[in-house]
Amino acid sequence: MTIEPLDLNRRNWHDRARVHGQDRFYDSEALVAGASSLTQVEEEALRRAVGEVGGLEVIHLQCHLGFDSISLARAGAHVTGLDFSPVSLAKAAALAERCRVDLSLVEVDVCHPPSNLLGRFDLAYATIGALCWIGDIDAWMTAVHDLLRPGGSLVLVETHPFQAMIDTTDPLVLDFPYCFDGPHVFDNPGSYTDRAARIQATKTVQYAHSLGEVVTAAIDAVLVMRWLAERTDESRDYRGDLAGREPDGQYRLRLGGEPVPMLYSLVADRPA
User: Fold this and answer.
1) Are 47 and 226 in contact (CB under 8 A)?
2) Average model confidence (pLDDT) for the chain?
3) Global model pTM greater than 0.85
4) How far apart are the first and last CA of the chain?
């Protein structure tokens, strides 16, 4: 029996959620103690989109354990988190309770949000590693448009597709395309938080989306592009030992001595 890509990925994220939560990416104890999970890049994009989030209705797409959902709620937003993994959402709910934060959490395929959520949100927020799991980027952007109320904004901070191509630098090996060419099946044990973690559902299906494809999908979904920025550095070690930490504390991946693009951020609005 063939397992659909969505179900294959859901099984993998169930297992990831079971081992995530107190590791080099997800410091639950620091979050409970009051630390924010938002990076400088994410905070910059939020400022450009809406200024302050206090009082806004925010939808966090693919929220996983809800770290950023909690941080946004602490800043005064009314946050709804969407995710397709009930294991992730259960851990997010428990963590929100420990943080004494109110979240609304909805189990759903992000490309097909329920009708009761449509047109309700001032801000749609998604960050690092969201789009590689989406086979239909047009459907994703259309869902964002439909979730936003007129005048609402999308903040997307994502891995740059150039960086995503690179498997190793010495020798240089590329194991992922720059732009969409259909599904790519991977079978990797562990997780990005801990490569030695015991994951049973190791197979995943991922998709490439070029920067141009992402921007065009937003425009086709009748979202108006307001800001787009690319960065050759990041504050977290998303690539393990592939990127090096430099004297300014930022991580960079260099080819021939030159840093490659690591992240991009965009803000787009649903017309009022």
Assistant:
1) no
2) 95
3) yes
4) 47
